[in-house]
Automatic annotation (TrEMBL):
This is Ribosome-binding factor A. One of its GO terms (biological process) is maturation of SSU-rRNA. It is found in: Cytoplasm. Its main location: cytoplasm. One of its GO terms (cellular component) is cytosol. One of its GO terms (molecular function) is ribosomal small subunit binding. Belongs to the RbfA family. One of several proteins that assist in the late maturation steps of the functional core of the 30S ribosomal subunit. Associates with free 30S ribosomal subunits (but not with 30S subunits that are part of 70S ribosomes or polysomes). Required for efficient processing of 16S rRNA. May interact with the 5'-terminal helix region of 16S rRNA. Monomer. Binds 30S ribosomal subunits, but not 50S ribosomal subunits or 70S ribosomes. The gene is rbfA. Gene3D superfamilies: 3.30.300.20. Keywords: Cytoplasm, Ribosome biogenesis. It comes from Paraflavisolibacter caeni.
Length: 129
């Protein structure tokens, strides 16, 4: 289902504020790795925010657990920043954004296919000689 205009506005606002909050609380650098907010999806009733995180150079499950442990503090900080724009602060749910993993897997598959095609082409040329 297509996101509405208000959902996109609230999602953008929350993403912008969450980036700032993560920097303020030191959650953008965990265990020597980088954590970034890739997207924020808001439910149509604006009561739930699904925050997708990209995690680099660190164990994803450990980083997600640490962020979940700070969830109350994050929500409190978010509420103080957006209380003038929103009537109710949405429930925050954090998810791993695995789109980069899928991109890397697809690139590997394409490389394997290309190697296979080149190998088949070389075999065909040597058999013709």
């Amino acid at each position: 289902m297509q996101e509405g205009k208000r959902q996109k506005q609230v999602g953008g606002l929350i993403q912008e504020e969450m980036n700032s909050i993560f920097q303020h609380l030191g959650l953008n650098m965990l265990n020597g790795g980088l954590v970034s907010i890739s997207t924020v999806k808001i439910t149509p009733d604006l009561l739930e925010a699904r925050i997708y995180l990209s995690i680099f150079q660190t164990e994803a499950k450990v980083a997600l657990k640490k962020i979940e442990d700070h969830k109350w503090e994050i929500k409190k900080e978010l509420a103080s920043r957006v209380k003038q724009q929103l009537r109710r602060i949405p429930e925050l749910k954090f998810f791993l954004d695995e789109t980069l993993d899928h991109v890397f897997k697809m690139e590997e598959i394409f490389k394997e296919i290309k190697k296979g095609e080149e190998g088949a082409k070389d075999q065909k040329e040597t058999s013709e000689d």
